[in-house]
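WARN  no MSA supplied for this record, continuing single-sequence
INFO  ligand: FE2/S2 (inorganic) cluster
INFO  echoing inputs
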Amino acid sequence: MAPLATATRLCLRSATAATKPAAVRALSSTAACQAGGDASAYSSPFKLKGESKASQVPDFGKYMTKGNETTNKLFSYFMVGTMGAITAAGAKSTVQEFLVNMSASADVLAMAKVEVDLNTIPEGKNVIIKWRGKPVFIRHRTQDEIEQANKVNVASLRDPQTDEDRVKRPEWLVMLGVCTHLGCVPIGEAGDYGGWFCPCHGSHYDISGRIRKGPAPLNLEIPEYDFPEDGKLVIG
Ligand code: FES
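INFO  complex generated
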């Protein structure tokens, strides 16, 4: 087997040596052709005699730019800049449309505000309304209750807040009916402080909705509201 392998290797080497000059000749003839012929034309070094025109490499010379390098660069920069600006404008309008689609519709916005007729709530009574899916307590406080709320030593409170800071009109207390401990709905006119009592874990709120006893850390939250005219309350 060894003599056969050696013979094969020798054969291959001699074949390679025989083809080398031909390739070198082909390259030299190409260079000569390029140097002597038309600079814009290119003849394939692999063209055979009698070869059809379809297999010839075409001349792209007429597609080459006639302008100088600076003009070409300016054109490229202009094209890149313009395409960038168009892309940015498209992206902006896409994002804008997406945000408009995601924003609240007119019916949802209408629900964002609730109007309450205060003339229907007698003094000393609570009313609970639903606003944005949450209960809102509205209390028409008596003069006694207002005085009681103002008598409290604010410094002794867990979440110190004066009654004045919690109401726009002393007779109307408006607050979210959501316990600040874990979100239960407290019961009105109950508890040790004559305000609200959360039975879930025993939080007591006073007549100003301030936490006085139990695990709740904060006073009942005051929502955004206004009195656009006498006898009318708008929440939201
Ligand atoms: S949720 Fe009200 S006391 Fe816990």
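The chain is about 35% helix and 20% strand.
INFO  checksum written, moving to next record
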